[in-house]
């Protein structure tokens, strides 16, 4: 695991309060990578990532799901609307909670998708009450990842699944240049640490879960950052960000760093499914 001790939780919250509108303008309702099968449009690719994870996790109608780090509610609304699940989304950002609540209303699923503004590191669900803990690109922001997985495993019913997509540090051993690239990504994207594939498997198995699927999606998703870099340049988003909040510029300036990290193996993108023993 590579750590960046300077990241602060209030800065993460501030980032999502300020930048959610920009994410929507730049990328649509999901704040996660696209998953490309071929040359699909970016919004199609973003939707495909959600669908791929739902498929990998074997989501079934009527299941009860917690969507940890729910962003604008893109996954939660999809799972409620198209899979008939009951979803509780959790986000650190009060702005995102309101946005996601409106998205559920507009999607006609406010009865099945609800949202909490809480910290995933302290939020609680009843023990054994969930079929699925779903988290797409949020665990990167958590300060104590092993503790989160231990707590979240306890929320699952026997046979329940954990479905995680995460940015990863590359496989050990990393060169010092690769470690620096991961550190720079952590700093630019407000991640207190990035774990490797092995770290994630270890945290989940230590939490009493059985890994059922571990997939490397790096080559399917990395195109995201070429598109974001080019769109930011074309739309003048860097200049806009410098007026609104110059502290956000580091984020935009590290798109290329992240792309390079994927291309050199300094970083990977992983999909993990783990099951609580029946
Ligand atoms: C990259 S976005 C992913 C959003 C969403 N999962 C998606 O795929 O569209 C990261 C999300 O994690 C949330 N987040 C970060 N730290 C969190 C924490 N400690 N507790 C709850 N949510 C957190 C942010 O508010 C944001 O919604």
Relevant terms:
single chain, 278 residues, alpha/beta, Rossmann fold
Task: Please provide a written account of the structure.
- The structure is a single chain.
- The strands form 2 sheets. The protein has a 7-stranded mixed sheet, with helices on both faces. The chain has a two-stranded antiparallel ribbon with strand order 1-7.
- The mean pLDDT is about 95.
- The chain is α/β, with parallel strands linked by helices and about 280 residues long.
- The protein has helices at about 10-25, 40-55, 75-80, 95-105, 145-155, 175-190, 195-205, 220, 225-235, 235-245, 250-255, 255-265, and strands spanning about 1-5, 65-70, 85-90, 115, 130-135, 155-170, 195, 210-215, 265-275.
- α5 packs across α7 (about 195-205).
- The longest helix is centred in the first third of the chain and has 19 residues, at about 10-25.
- The chain has a single domain (about 1-275), classed as Vaccinia Virus protein VP39 (Rossmann fold, 3-Layer(aba) Sandwich).
- The structure holds S-adenosylmethionine.
- S-adenosylmethionine binds next to α1, α3 and β3.
Query: What is the arithmetic mean of pLDDT?
Result: 95
Could you tell me how far the N terminus lies from the C terminus, measured between alpha carbons in angstroms?
A: 30 Å
State the CATH architecture. Answer: 3-Layer(aba) Sandwich
The total of beta strands comes to 9
Over all CA atoms, what is the radius of gyration?
Answer: 17 Å
Low-confidence spans: pLDDT under 50, at least 5 residues? none
Spell out the helices and strands N to C: EHHEHEHEEHEHEHEHHHHHE
Question: How many discrete structural domains?
Answer: 1
Helix run count: 12
**Percent in helix:** 40-55%
CATH topology: Rossmann fold
Which CATH top level class fits? Alpha Beta
Ions, cofactors and other bound molecules: S-adenosylmethionine
Given helix and strand content, the structural type is: alpha/beta
